[in-house]
Amino acid sequence: QVQLVESGGGLLQAGGSLRLSCAASGNGFTLSIMAWYRQAPGKQRELVASIGPSGGTNYADSAKGRFTISRDNAKTTVYLQMLSLKPEDTGVYYCNARPVFGDANSWGQGTQVTVSS
């Protein structure tokens, strides 16, 4: 199993930038699809970005062109670089690990991102 700890959230004004980090421990990081989800107050959790074991990425339409997901397998860490932040980006951001060989998904505790207008 993989344990995940997010960091890097904070409060900032629209147009600012933020980099989130997700540190993974335990076995399975290299063979996991890593993803960032976002949950706004009163809303369902939604996929923001994902990155596969070979580096292939997918983004929500709202994130394309502004967000970049990356992974450092040596550090067992996944990042989400967020540029030109908007108030609608506000929410709790959760890191997720999806093992490719059928093990249970892992979730971090979440990190709050608040963007003021």
Provide key terms for this protein.
four-stranded antiparallel sheet
Can you describe this structure?
This protein is mainly β and 117 residues long. The protein is built from no helices and eleven strands. Strands 2, 4, 5, 6, 9, 10 and 11 form a seven-stranded mixed sheet that branches. The protein has a four-stranded antiparallel sheet with strand order 1-3-8-7, with no helix packed on it. A hairpin with a 4-residue loop joins strand 7 and strand 8. It is globular, with a radius of gyration of 13 Å.
What's the total count of β strands?
11
Low-confidence stretches: none
Rg of Cα set: 13 Å
Strand content: over 45%
Main sheet attributes: strand count, strand direction, barrel closure: 7 strands, mixed
**So how many helices?**
0
Summarize the helix and strand pattern as letters. EEEEEEEEEEE
The structural class is: mainly beta
Q: Look at the structure and give the mean pLDDT.
A: 96
Q: Span between N and C termini?
A: 40 Å
Morphology: globular
Helix content: under 10%
